[in-house]
Write the structure tokens for this entry.
Amino acid sequence: MNEGSKKTIKTLCFAVLGMFTFSFALVPLYNVFCEVTGLNGKIELRATNDKNIEIDNGRDISIQFVSHNNEEMPWAFKPSEDNIQIKTGKYHTATFYVKNTTNKRMVAQAIPSVAPSNAAAHLKKLECFCFEQQELAPGEEALLPVRLIFDDELPSSINSVVLSYTIFDVTDYNDVEFTQHHNDDHHAGHEMEPSI
Amino acid sequence: MSAVIESHNHDDHHHGPAKGLTRWLYTTNHKDIGSLYLWFSFAMFLIGGAMAMVIRAELFQPGMQIVEPEFYNQMLTLHGLIMVFGAVMPAFVGLANWLVPMMVGAPDMALPRMNNLSFWILPFAFFILLSSLFMEGGAPNFGWTFYAPLSTTYAPPSVTFFIFAVHIMGASSIMGSINVIVTIMNMRAPGMTLMKMPLFVWSWLITAYLLIAVMPVLAGAVTMMLMDIHFGTSFFNAAGGGDPVLFQHIFWFFGHPEVYIMILPAFGIASHIIETFSRKQLFGYASMVWAMASIAILSFVVWAHHMFTVGLPLAAELFFMWATMLIAVPTGVKVFNWVTTMFKGSITYETPMLFAIAFVVLFTIGGFSGLMLAITPADFQYHDTYFVVAHFHYVLVPGSIFSIMAAVYYWIPKWTGNMYDERLGKLHFWLSFIGVNVTFFPQHWIGLAGMPRRIPDYALQFADWNMISSVGAFLFGASQILFLFIVLKTVMGGKKATPEVWEGSRGLEWTVESPAPYHTFTTPPKVT
């Protein structure tokens, strides 16, 4: 085999490895792309630190709250109010009612989505239950708060926004973490296991 | 070490193939491996075709008649996977193995042992895939596009075997492509510049680059599925912060170039056949090359036209609509070049030419329905209906498959040394031509009328056209048995073929005798 062939083979093998890596790189690229552009209604899962966002003479915006249960998530989950009227540049606190209807301790994660998607970049949250996982004992109920604000750059074509939360059962994912802790830490005993 | 092998080869120079089964197991000869690929793909074509018959038999009448809906879904999934990865792709690789070395004046493929490996892992891949039919929970049932979460959260346990099979198919394709590229780039006869290469070689060079670029992405996609299913990751699971729409983006980033992988070699084949039987030089060689290259490059920026209805923003819908429509330009260039080549030619209508002309006409119909689907607002109506089924079957069956059949009729005298039976060949063509159109043309109408795809039952108003479509499918399926018979008959004997086989055939493969000797071009020919 001549030198030219060897060089071609080497280049092609690198191309194959490169494209395999690229397929995994698409995952963060996709998330970054969606977050930067606000596509897919994705919003950042962390609190805003913008101090100058509040203004006095904002315009009226109506927000519709929607709640979904993912797959067979059994919890009761619904917004306290379905519709509210707020003004841009003013903080507002809304709450969601949640109840663990099972007889097991469960952990849940809520994932927000905004429609229309170009409103996503202008919705800021000071505090949201979606920033962390919610753990509820059997039969326990709670009112989960979200403190949100629309900045004044919200496109003028948007007068109403749908803010939807889907609640996921992530108990199993937490069990995986617990087990790993157990393996790491030999002193941990059964007291961390949920007693059923 | 290579010097030793060369001198050894020199001694064995006039030896024919080894005898018995081991010839096929151990062979590193590009012609043997080409034949293996072609026979394997034909076997898969019949198996995938049998599954299509099950699908059409169930759809013969409304209501559930023959199979359970779960089994219907498995048939539908395996039909797609087997036809794409088992029939069309290996057939083109087989043609590349037979033809590329002879067309560029090389003695063999650049990496003969890897060539053997890339073929022999394929039967294992499909054995694994097909064996899932007999597993608990049944075979994969999520469609050949295996969208998450259907293929992850809700998949049957056999999905892991499916993933492993796809990995093997991908490895086989990647090795095959490396072989083709290295052969074309480094082993052309002296004087054969890139722009003197036969168009089939060009089409395969571009196809091989596409395969190198996207098969690893497919491997990545199924690896992510594997990790989601077994290792607790959440690439496509929204509960863990992943996104099922991401799966569709990754899949179609592979999937759209993949559909051009299945049509570009067909462009090369059609160019050769139309040129020969029109007895004219091909019109617009350079524009053919540029058109194929442009189609290949554009294929990377149109993937989301498969996903218009997932909720893309307006800007993306517009971008992907226009980019998709742009592909009609180079494709149109090719169609016009074929028509212009035929214009005022002294055309004869042997079987390969009939298949090639049908390819041009019917592929163009498939292209036009593709343009209709590219219109975003219209796609919201067409999406996931039988219109889509009609569209991609028009580009794949009378597109890719007809071109493969045309290639077999065109080159089989070179492979076997015997002419096929022209009368039977024409009969096969007309049965296939009528069968394909009766099957798929009515599906345009029932699709526009709103019949959803991938459903084993349908509303009563679709009954008549479905019955006609099924009758066409049975005709098409049966006529492929005739094809098998014709090929076997030609292998066993027939009128002896001359070296040039066809009046007006052009290219190095027609300068060697028929059948082509086991070793050709051990000393490279001079190309002027």
